[in-house]
Write a structure and sequence with these properties.
The structure holds two protein chains of two kinds. Chain A is α+β, with helices and mostly antiparallel strands. Chain A is built from 16 helices and 16 strands. The chains are: A alpha+beta, B alpha/beta.
Chain lengths: 471, 176
């Protein structure tokens, strides 16, 4: 038995490594996916005042701090037993949409586009966003500008782009200035044009990746995503719906406070990332997926015209229930478009300029759960406090965790299809990494983990001796 | 003109400093023209390369793996910059320092799991007793505080270093 290690997996948000075991004939026998860091927010926040939790847990992730700020603030709303004023809730939703735009742009353009545009087998020294700047400056610039548009909205509303202190228990701490609204509206048409163009371009090239589509994590699984009462997709507030692998509803509307009846967590011996599972089916049969692909499988529609048109075409091209993880990219680009439509709709509502944006209260409940859809999937913060409001217990279930079991299985599938141990090539291993990239996993979030994203590939013999090394 | 060999490293942090680096927006196109990014979260380098001119480090030193990595980085980099509060002071990762790693892991993987309870031990690096700032382990040439440092400060630091000057950060950065 030989072992290949991809350490770390590159161009993902965090630090992971993959071991690939080959049998004597050079075929892939098994794979192991390791997440290699843990930070322990659940433990070290004990004793902190509950209202500090949004700021502390934002530091779980600098890519989607807004997601943690929102999930945490919603848990705090529950502890205070308040409902944020209408404008406050709409402003939270607005900043959340802006985050989807910037985060989805980062995932597609900065991290995955180098594979799709420069080629999975292209020179790894240039297969990155800087290579893209040289070889396809228009596409690279579109990515920089779309990400910038999302970040500027966050900055306009919340004063800072990363870890803003504007989202607070009870709502937000300042209303939206009319000048900021007008500035965002002025920038929208250009952002829409870039999103439309990118999606149109993606649809012209997607068919070139038939082999990847057919082998990238295609095993059917359950899916979970948040929806409103009409079954439409929701990112900020709603109930979590689970559908089975054939698309039939198995759980129509889990409320945040009931999550522990539906979601269990299993520890894994070889990873710092726990594996959540759907409790009624138990572990590991209760495997399910979250994120853009899962949300599009679960929701009936977006409720915005352009994204709904794209969703209809997506379902026509890929089927009513989509399982290939490669299509996370496609689903993500449609969601990016929806984010821009939703921003426009929220800003067109005059009540967005309302000045009553925050509810004030002290501790009224000793427990609270907050749930939102983060860009990578559903995110749950659960806190218990004492009468003085100090945290006595905390649990966080983050998007990438839900996908842990599916990523593990997908890695095995891609490795078995693409890797030939007889003639090891870097591009084969890049496809294994690309499967992980398609999920846009955030290991910074998920274990409160880290990553220095470079890749070393070593082929070892049974005795551990290095047989071959790439790089 | 020969391009500067630039590396960026993400240890025990949240990626926020890297996001602030990307928040220089279009200026990243100019950086790409003058520096070759030879290692970091955005590129596919296979291992930390030799003869790096400048390495920006985000995050504290928290695991055995971080410790080994930062020693290699120091040996192979002319200038090492601690980017952000976690690298400069330990910051949020160091909030765990009052708690024994064993207790922390038990809380997450035994009390915090319903199935397969147990602490991961295979293929994952051991946690250090405490998360520490970079300069506690290796010599650091420049400290850039902030959680994260503002994009304007990062653009200034990178710009000055590309010009071969030591940036004077007075008035440009603060903690938090």
């Amino acid at each position: 038995m030989k072992k290949i290690t991809i350490d770390p997996v590159t161009r993902i948000e965090g630090h992971a490594k993959i071991d690939i075991y080959l049998d004597d004939a050079g075929h892939v026998a098994d794979t192991n996916f390791h997440i290699t860091q843990v930070r322990g927010f659940e433990k070290f926040t004990e004793g902190r005042p509950f209202y500090e939790m949004p700021s502390i847990t934002a530091r779980i992730c600098g890519i989607c701090p807004v997601s943690h700020l929102l999930a945490s603030s919603k848990a705090c709303d529950a502890i205070m037993a308040v409902v944020p004023p209408e404008t406050g809730a709409k402003l939270r939703e607005l900043v959340h949409c802006a985050q989807f735009v910037q985060s989805h742009a980062l995932s597609f353009f900065h991290l995955s586009a180098p594979d799709l545009l420069l080629g999975f087998d292209s020179d790894p020294a240039h297969r990155n966003v800087f290579g893209l700047i040289e070889q396809n400056p228009e596409m690279a610039k579109a990515g920089v500008m779309l990400r910038k548009f999302g970040q500027q909205i966050i900055e306009g509303l919340a004063k800072e782009r990363v870890h803003p202190s504007w989202i607070v228990p009870g709502g937000v701490n300042a209303p939206l200035a009319p000048a900021v609204r007008d500035r965002i509206l002025a920038g929208l048409p250009a952002a829409r044009a870039l999103a439309d163009k990118t999606l149109a371009f993606f649809k012209t090239v997607v068919d070139q990746f038939q082999e990847e589509i057919a082998n990238f994590g295609t095993a059917p699984t359950m899916c979970a995503g948040m929806v409103d009462e009409g079954g439409g997709l929701q990112w900020y507030d709603g109930r979590l719906k689970f559908k089975d692998a054939e698309g039939a509803t198995v759980s129509a509307g889990m409320q945040a406070k009931d999550y522990a009846s539906f979601i269990g967590e299993a520890s894994l011996r070889d990873s710092y990332l726990k594996a959540p599972y759907y409790k009624p089916l138990s572990y590991p049969a209760g495997i399910y997926r979250v994120g853009p692909l899962a949300r599009l499988n679960v929701a009936d529609g977006f409720g915005t015209p352009a994204a709904d048109r794209e969703l209809a075409e997506y379902r026509q091209r890929c089927g009513p229930v989509v399982h290939s993880a490669f299509h996370y990219h496609y689903a993500r680009l449609i969601e990016l478009l929806h984010g821009l439509e939703k921003i426009e709709r929220l800003l067109a509502d005059p009540s967005i300029l309302g000045t009553h944006v925050r509810a004030h209260a002290a501790v009224n409940c000793l427990e609270g759960v907050g749930m939102i859809e983060a860009p990578r999937g559903v995110l749950i913060h659960h806190y218990k406090v004492n009468e003085q409001g100090a945290i006595t217990w905390a649990n966080l279930i983050v998007a990438t965790g839900h996908n842990n079991l599916a990523i593990n299985r997908g890695v095995t599938q891609v490795a078995k299809h693409f890797i030939d141990g007889g003639k090891l090539q870097e591009g084969m291993l890049n496809r294994v990494s690309a499967l992980v990239r398609a999920y846009d996993p955030c290991f910074s979030c998920s274990t409160h983990a880290d990553g220095t994203l470079a890749m070393q590939i070593t082929l070892r013999g049974p005795d551990g001796a290095v047989i071959d090394r790439l790089g | 003109m020969k391009k500067i060999r630039l590396a960026t490293v993400w240890l025990d942090g949240c990626a926020g400093c890297h996001m602030s680096l990307l928040d220089i927006d279009e200026a990243i196109l100019n950086v790409a023209a003058r520096a070759e990014v030879v290692y970091g979260p955005l590129v596919d380098a296979q291992e930390f390369p030799k003869a790096v001119d400048v390495t920006l480090i985000e995050g504290a030193i928290s695991s055995q793996e971080d410790l080994e990595k930062v020693n290699t980085i120091r040996k192979r980099s002319k200038l090492v910059v601690s980017l952000g509060d976690c690298a400069v002071t330990g910051n949020v990762p160091a909030m765990r320092n009052q708690i024994a790693p064993r207790k922390l892991l038990e809380r997450i993987y035994i009390e915090g799991a319903q199935e397969n309870k147990g602490i991961p031990t295979s293929g994952v690096p051991a946690l250090l007793r405490q998360a520490v700032p970079v300069h506690q382990v290796v010599k650091v040439d420049l400290h850039v505080p902030g959680c994260p440092p503002p994009a304007s400060a990062i653009a200034f630091v990178v710009g000055e270093l590309l010009e071969g000057r030591v940036p004077n950060l007075t008035g440009k950065v603060k903690f938090g």
